[in-house]
Amino acid sequence: MLVFHIPGALRQFTGGAATVNLEDSAPTLGHALAMLWMLHPGLRDRVLTEQGQVRQHINIFIGDEDIRYSGGLVSTLSPGSEISIVPSITGGAC
Length: 94
Known about the structure:
The chain is built from two helices and five strands. The chain has helices at 29-39, 44-47; strands at residues 2-5, 19-22, 58-62, 65-66, 82-87. The N and C termini lie far apart (45 Å).
């Protein structure tokens, strides 16, 4: 099983679910995301660009590892992996 943690801003695309469990395993993050899009297609355009890359303002973690530093969409997954989709938080100085 794989577990996706969905941030509040994207839960409207998962019917309000904070987590999405995938019963099947996937060898890579890209495969797992493709399975997630089949269940919740509205998430895809909020997470990936038209070219299929992770949007600049979206961070994805497998466990505690940021995928930008561990292989991107070809990052390998293990059974029971927990994947967090986290929008970047921006702010400015006063």
